[in-house]
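As described in the Methods, two query proteins were run sequentially through the folding procedure within a single session, without resetting any intermediate state between them. The first query and its resulting structure tokens are shown here.
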Amino acid sequence: MGIYYATLASTFILSLLARMANDKKYKIIAIFWISLVVSVLVLFSGLRSGIGDTGMYKHTYGLLVENPNFSKANGDYGFVLLNLILIQFSNNPQTIVFVVALITQLCNVYVLNKYRSYIELEIFMYIAAGYFTVTMNGMRQCLAAALLFLCVKFIIDGSFKKYLLSVLIISTIHQSALFMIPIYFIARLKPWSKKIYMIIGIAVLGLLFYEVLSGYLFKIIENTNYGYYSDFDEGGSSIMRTFVNMVPIIFAYLKRNKLKEKWPQSNVFVNMALLNCIFVAFGMSNWIFNRFSLYLQLYNFILLPYIIRNCLEGKQRRTIYLAFIVCYLIFFYREQVIGLNMQYKSVLDIKSIFYYTPNHR
């Protein structure tokens, strides 16, 4: 876990330097520091040799190297196309891991920095909340989520046609992206309006009667890529994860007037955070709901640091700032160290990324 702690600490320091440079209007210096943050994340993720489904995607890449016409790698042909393009440059399966890491981390950090407040807290939260780890354990879906995260401007501006076209294209990478089409309309609602309270009420009823409703849900998705979750009997996420994802919503509600005054665009981030909390709550019963939260949780990383910096003052702000770091460190340790016992192995030999020869007997 040492390398995880080093990544968490180094990116926090680099992001803090970027924020200090931005505050002093040194934009070029700020870009330099934030570029180093991206580099650390990309190298960590792109040079891994395992974690989650990494092996499966490397295996698929190897199959495409042997047979470039192999079109049944999966049903999401945008991702197959990306593989086919990359094999023109390298036959090493690590290439797809590195390129997806580059695109995913670059997109996520770009948007976090674009809507920055305390950028160091945003990056810290991104890693400590476990999302960074998930990008290495669900790389194709997180790639789709990162690309859709870039489209938040379309939601804010109300450009539905551009957003719809983006979702349709990105869904060729992971079909679950289609789920974000109806989310567009909910995200644009006025926070804490009657419609939002109605959604909360429906969610509460859904949680109370989950055992009854789940049968209908899994009947609907049985012929999709998520059909196997109907037989998944290993439970879901912890109640602590649900509580952690509630925190941005609690702060957003308590500071709703000030938040509306200082940041008129915050409705999108508040509603996305609320939807994320709902899906994570359902995720306590089945992991499938946490898969959908991958598209929504990213908005937490912008919302909570913004509230801390712009809606709190003086001693209260400093106290919450420090409490934020301590609490997320505890959560990181509980989830990543105790819960998952994360281990990291790297290919290390950078040359092998581009010069790879399969072993043949």
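Immediately afterward, the second query was submitted; its sequence and tokens are:
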Amino acid sequence: MIDLTDDPYDLFGAWMAKAEESELNDPNAMTLATATPEGQPSARIVLLKSWDRQGFVFYTNLESRKSDEIRANPQVALLFHWKTRKRQIRIEGSAAQVSDAEADAYFATRPRLSRIGAWASDQSRPLADRRRLEQRLEQSIALYADAEVPRPPHWSGWVVTPRAIEFWEDRDFRLHDRAVFTRAGEFWQATRLYP
């Protein structure tokens, strides 16, 4: 049973560690839900790249649809679902861009071809022909053949600062265990929920 006296970050870390033991692919995959200022929702899978008590970080093209929506409406939701563990975690909060230093540090850890691909792709914009992307990739490979690949100015990360973190665990007969931790100033208030 979810312990309501737990710190939600410690509980998140414990559940993530268990997911890393059992999930075959991308235990750090999470659904990111955004919305336009008019309330039109959009969701997609992104990868959690780091987290701490300040928030949950993912990286992307700043000219992508998700980034446009976050700039217009920074209220977002994240969802981790681990089928093998029969668990999920929902996070609601606000997103802000990470510092250039943090983005540079993470970008430098990416595989070289992924760094080059960040220069070649106009993420979320129309692509008339796949060959055009391949040509741009070849051009970028040639451009950086003998050089370090710098982080493009249009590529960075977002940190989601949570105001609520909900833990859900499957139980028999759909009598699931469910609890939400809601930020109350510097502290968290925990509430058990009906399934």
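The radius of gyration is 19 Å. We note this only descriptively and draw no conclusion about the first query from it.
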